[in-house]
Amino acid sequence: FTTFPGSPKWRKNHLTYRIVNYTPDLPKESVDSAIEKALKVWEEVTPLNFSRLSEGEADIMISFAVGEHGDFYPFDGPGQSLAHAYPPGPGFYGDAHFDEDEKWTLGPSGTNLFLVAAHELGHSLGLFHSDNKEALMYPVYRFSTNPAQFRLSQDDINGIQSLYGPRPSSDAIVVPLSSVSPRPETPVKCDPALSFDAVSTLRGELLLFKDRYFWRKTRWNSEPEVHLISAFWPSLPSHLDAAYEAHNKDSVFIFKGSQFWAVRGNEVQAGYPKAIYTLGFPPAVRKIDAAVNDSNNKKTYFFVEDKYWRFNEKTNLMDKGFPRLIKDDFPGVESRVDAVLQAFGFFYFFHGSSQFEFDPNARMVTHTLKSNSWLLC
Amino acid sequence: YPLHGAVSKDHPSMEFAQQYLEKYYSFEKNVEQVFRRKDSSPVVKKIQEMQKFLGLEMTGKLDSSTMDVMLKPRCGVPDVGG
Description:
The complex is a heterodimer.
Chain A: E1 14-19, H1 28-43, E2 49-52, E3 60-65, E4 81-85, E5 96-99, E6 104-105, E7 111-112, H2 113-124, H3 154-164, E8 198-202, E9 205-210, E10 213-217, E11 225-228, H4 229-232, E12 242-246, E13 251-256, E14 259-264, E15 267-268, E16 274-275, E17 290-294, E18 299-304, E19 307-312, E20 317-318, E21 324-325, H5 326-329, E22 339-343, E23 346-351, E24 354-359, E25 364-370
Parallel strand pairs in A: 1-2, 1-3, 3-5, 6-7
Antiparallel strand pairs in A: 4-5, 8-9, 9-10, 10-11, 12-13, 13-14, 14-15, 14-16, 17-18, 18-19, 19-20, 19-21, 22-23, 23-24, 24-25
Chain B: H1 14-25, H2 31-36, H3 41-53, H4 64-70, E1 74-75
């Protein structure tokens, strides 16, 4: 591997990116998903994490262009130069440009957007080209057998970790790269090991989110339906962190990384995503693990690792005296909560494939269930 | 004066090779001079540098396997230089 001369690198681990425009070759959400997966390739082996901006200046601006596009490195029509990107730094540094004269695809034909994006984002993070033919950072494009089986070579990992070090083990992301092809596996609802990314109510229904899917339990159909998140809310990301319904606002708030969205019915509200710091979180908080709105007192509890905050939905301010330790106020509940649900006067804390039913009056865990008990498993 | 058989000035791919070496291997702009100069060793060296990086046999010539790789789609970022 090589790094750019002088080994420029980002001096922070939390980076923002923005997809400035789209290629007509693919649906927008496919471009979103391919870029998200390309970033995850590097996120998995470094301390870096990425959040997406929908406007303004991001560290990594991603765009499609043809020919001369304002940076003295004109593209050259179909073939030859497919894309280019700049090393870390201010302004246009870090940006990635894709040649719109290519035929961008999700599969082996044409030019696979995921593979090229993963390579270009390697440049955006500071890697130059590698002469190792097996490396992602080898300059000549070749479609590997299948992006779904894509793995960074050791050369790529050595290169990026020479700049940023490895991913701290506690944050190790073990999420396997699912295919960018349009036929991802639907999670199995009665898998005893099933865990959820987030759980929320929505106007009397129950939504249980997993990867790019969610199950929807309605009052009139005992059998839960499974849907792609993007089928209802195309602009929402997958692999969510948290979700809750603010009943007094008739809105569901969806969290991923340091951003959150507001959804009313199947409409994502304008002006979102916003940064979680607008809710009053300190900069040290990079993501929310779980959230639940207590319909009794109109307060929302946000769970982050072993602590939790309380947010006043009427004043839109974080309550004083927080964060507090989860174990102090919810004895028996394991930290690192995946999701929380309020139902029948209880709180249900999801932790991996288990769920703890917590009685707030008795202040104790009254039952331990399987997480997918709500799916009639 | 034979250019060591590296790249004769009317080699069909010379123009393409010139652009490729300029763009990705920081080859000097005024290749006309270099390609025509009696001593074409800078050209040979540059072609060998490219062949080495791309994992090709370092013949110093624009042979077919070298041209094949040069004609493949690639990233627009140079392989050497700034």
